[in-house]
Amino acid sequence: MDTQVKLRGFRIELGEVESALLMHPDVREAVVDARGKGMDKKLVAWVIASVGAKDFSPLRDNLRTHLRALLPDWMAPSVFMFVESLPLTPNGKIDRRSLPDPDTSDLSALAFVAPATPTEELLAGLWAVVLKREGISRHDDFFDLGGHSLLATQLISRIRDSFQVDLPVRAVFEQPKLLALAAAIKSASAGLSFALPPIEPQSADSPKAPSFAQQRLWFLDRYEEGKNATYSMPVALRLSGPLDIEALRASLGWMVERHQSLRTCFPETDGVARVGILPASAFEFPIHDLRRLPSAERWLQQRVDEHATEPFDLACGPLFRAEFLQLGKHHDQDINVLLINMHHIISDGWSLGVLVREWEIAYTAFVRGESPTLTPLPFQYSDYAAWQRQWLQGDVLAAQLAYWKDNLAGIPELLALPTDYPRPAQQSYQGAYRFQTLPADITTALKAFSREQGVTSS
């Protein structure tokens, strides 16, 4: 296994950095390790060059450029030491403790550069929230700091709220550095032609319409006649410890009451999707006691499969389901499983994580005989849907449609990816996924290819 270090909140596989260095034709051998403590901790590379030189400054610059194309900045060494040989242990392995102390004279160019304008300062604060890190430099790259497409979407939403400009998500990919994205925001503010209306809470009795994303999923469900679970989001959480049944039911009921989306259904009127809100009393959370069954694990797997593949009725709901399974003791600990399933029309992957964390907080509070203290939600998703339909119409809608029609013109109707089996005449929606750990060199190559293509590999 490759040696791993933690640097500024990131876990770095040293072997991955070494593999990237060895891809350079002028590098014969390379070792990477972390030196220093706290905020002074840095990655150092000891390099044996393929050819000798009196001045290795050009090679040092070339290696930095080389690594920038292969690795995020936080994985690139801050210091390069060019040596004639590497110390070895008696069994022939690299003796990392005996590597020469690094020369830090070349770090001045890599010093932190503070945001220089009010726009950069505010944007750096948004990055800090989304990326969960401090000390954002104006030359930092969003994706090098751990950003990906989902976080880019969240960042754009925060930019919209903070700067009152409507940038597309692609702007983060095209201008990933802080100072460049800040310039794009300033430019968009100067030439803003479509003012964004504020999101306002809707009255409880006002008619509600689905968002455009919900309307698309509703159409797909009607097209497939609701016969499959393609857009279900099942989760099984194995929990250890004693179960407080009353607190369990109370916390799930509290969560359903808190999030209107979980109570949403989509009845149809004259071929048009409408939005209905179910009462919290319409939800039941069954508890199955399997502790006396000799084949509890087998029954568990069967119930997990059934829970995940049972289709949802979008018209009637509920579109959120939860149930609890008690399995018995294992190593003197109670083992339980919480099954959650939602239709994608009321949630997404990011929201699922939020819901699980809020359920944990609520359950803990009810176990203690207290009420959850989470801040009330200022808006519900139906408020966003109303805002979206109010804004995305007229000239704004025409501009958006024109952009996508132009960019998607000429794309193939069907993506012909090579597969192991021929594509069936009718989509079956049957599949699975498998986890696989990739070697460091393959991971490095994939990241380099992704950066060249302007996409993320996550």
What does this entry look like structurally?
This protein has 458 residues and is α+β, with helices and mostly antiparallel strands. The chain has 3 domains: 4-110, GMP Synthetase, Chain A, domain 3, CATH 3.30.300.30; 118-190, Non-ribosomal Peptide Synthetase Peptidyl Carrier Protein, Chain A, CATH 1.10.1200; 212-377, 2-Layer Sandwich (Chloramphenicol Acetyltransferase), CATH 3.30.559. Helix content is 37%, strand content 16%. It has 13 helices and 13 strands. The strands form 5 sheets. Strands 6-13-12-11 form a 4-stranded mixed β-sheet, with helices on one face. A 3-stranded mixed β-sheet has the order 3-4-5. Strand 3 (27-35) and strand 4 form a beta hairpin. Helix 1 crosses helix 13 (440-453). The longest helix is centred in the C-terminal third of the chain and has 19 residues, at 349-367. The two termini are 22 Å apart.
Set down the secondary structure blueprint.
Blueprint: E1 4-7, E2 10-13, H1 14-22, E3 27-35, E4 42-49, H2 57-70, E5 79-82, H3 118-131, H4 149-163, H5 170-174, H6 178-190, H7 212-223, E6 232-240, H8 245-258, E7 264-265, E8 268-269, E9 272-273, E10 276-277, E11 287-289, H9 296-309, E12 320-330, E13 333-343, H10 349-367, H11 381-391, H12 394-407, H13 440-453
Helix pairs in contact: 1-13, 3-4, 3-6, 8-10
Instruction: Kindly report the average pLDDT value.
Output: 84
Query: How many separate structural domains?
Result: 3
Q: What's the name of the CATH homologous superfamily of the largest domain?
A: Chloramphenicol acetyltransferase-like domain
Number of helical elements:
13
Give the C-level CATH assignment of the largest domain. Alpha Beta
Please give the order of strands in the largest beta sheet: 6-13-12-11
Question: Outline, from the CA principal axes?
Answer: globular
Helix/strand order: EEHEEHEHHHHHEHEEEEEHEEHHHH
Which percent range fits the helix content? 25-40%
- Name the CATH architecture of the largest domain: 2-Layer Sandwich
Portion in beta strands:
15-25%
CATH topology annotation of the largest domain = Chloramphenicol Acetyltransferase
Give the number of DSSP strands: 13
Protein name: AMP-binding enzyme C-terminal domain-containing protein
GO molecular function, one term: phosphopantetheine binding
Domain Carrier: 114-189
Organism: Candidatus Kentrum sp. MB
